[in-house]
Design brief:
4-stranded antiparallel beta sheet, 30% helix
Length: 84
């Protein structure tokens, strides 16, 4: 098993209902690897910041990160650490 612990950082540059719904749908579909979520609206810059703590198989984490990154107006970076 190739389990990892990590953080997915998401910057949402346009808070349209379609973007928000798409993000929430992906997070719901992957709830089994999500440990916690923190969302911060940042109206000064007109964007939102979301951090997702994940614990699961590397393929699952990469798939979630990749799908989030394919959404319009969404930037994603993932940091992983190995778990013994």
């Amino acid at each position: 098993m190739n389990e990892k612990l990590g953080i997915i950082a998401i910057i949402v540059e346009a808070s349209s209902d379609l973007v928000v719904d798409s993000i929430n749908k992906l997070l719901h579909e992957n709830r089994n690897i999500i440990v916690g979520r923190l969302g911060i609206p940042y109206p000064k810059r007109g964007l939102s910041l979301i951090s997702i703590v994940v614990d699961g198989d590397l393929d699952q984490i990469n798939a979630l990160s990749g799908k989030l990154g394919m959404l319009d107006h969404v930037t994603v970076k993932t940091t992983l650490a190995g778990v013994l």
